Amino acid sequence: MKRTSTEWKQKRAEFVKGKVCAWCSSPDRLCVCTPGVSSPAEIRSGIYNLAYTRFKEVYREKYQQFEYILTGKHRHKSHPAWHRASTIHKIEPDHSDLEEQIIERLIEDRGEGNFKQLYHEWLAENGIEELIEEEIKKAEEESASFEHAIVLCKSCHFASMKGMEICPRCRKRYKSSRYETCFDCLPEEKKKDILARQNEKKS
User: Fold this and answer.
1) Taking CA atoms, which of 76, 86, 100, 149 is between 20 and 30 Å from 63?
2) Residue-range domain boundaries for the chain
């Protein structure tokens, strides 16, 4: 059942009837939100991104050959930035996790000029388009079931799509999930600290 279908719209109207926004308690402009369920566009984009990353690995293994060259630099626990192995440190160095820097140089590319063609062939061979359609269908079925759905107003729904959530203290403003409250609900001391750090970065 697609969100554009009459059946889904009727089901949505019944689901939101008599409810208020689960975040801010607003009774206006309500919509159905299914946390964790991606839109078809998000599913398609996500799978294609993963597929492209995987194909680059396949292409590298199958068509490319590299030589590996030591640069003469290394890094270790006491000096984690790359530096010349001949560097004399002022204090006794801790060589734990010693790592030599290596760069790679491409010496052969048997698929050169055919990357796009080979990529599309690989997509077809691995059924990526079929996988996308299958995942979209699963998402639509989960969305249509309303099993994990909640009611949000349009403002809260938009905020949720941006990775934000309602501030648990004021229940008016939004915040990033990594913060406990919105900025306005922070204690005055914390506000001052944040503003001071921002001013330091600007200066």
Assistant:
1) 100
2) 1-33+145-161, 40-142, 166-202
